[in-house]
Amino acid sequence: MKFDTPQHQSGLIFSGTMGTKKVRILVGGQAFYISQEKLFHGPPSKLKQLVKSGDVDVERPADMFAAILAYYQTGELHMPMTSCPAAFIQEMEFWDIGQDRMTQCCANRLIKLFSI
Ligand SMILES: [Zn+2]
Fold first, then answer.
1. How far apart are CA 31 and CA 28, in angstroms?
2. pLDDT for 67-111, tens place per residue?
3. What's the 7 CA to ligand 1 centre distance in angstroms?
4. What DSSP state is assigned to residue 37?
5. Which CATH architecture has domain 11-114?
6. How many CB atoms lie within 10 A of CB 60?
7. 107-111 — which CB contacts under 8 Å span 24+ positions?
8. Ligand 1 centre and the CA of 97: distance in Å?
9. Is the Cβ–Cβ distance between 92 and 99 less than 8 Å?
10. Rounded to whole angstroms, how far apart are CA atoms 5 and 10?
């Protein structure tokens, strides 16, 4: 990915190719990018609030954040196969995303895991 603005700049940036505004989010020291449109048209969460208030740089696990970001990219919230369900629920709580947002397939996985 190539951007007009320097890579170290946080907040809103411009894509070098499509001209779409992208938002840079730092989680656990890793940079994630999402188009402003996808983020702001997506469901409410702490992520949206943080981006609105400025640069986002939080110390949370990056691998689980990838699933949170995918929720905005695809409109579906799935739990990563590699993460502990309890840990993922904690991340959902941190980002202010209700458990009812989880897609049916992963909600079923959670119910199975917790009913043992
Ligand atoms: Zn799923």
1. 8
2. 999 999 999 999 999 889 999 999 999 999 999 999 999 999 888
3. 33
4. H
5. 2-Layer Sandwich (3.30)
6. 14
7. 109/79, 109/85, 110/79, 110/85
8. 16
9. yes
10. 10
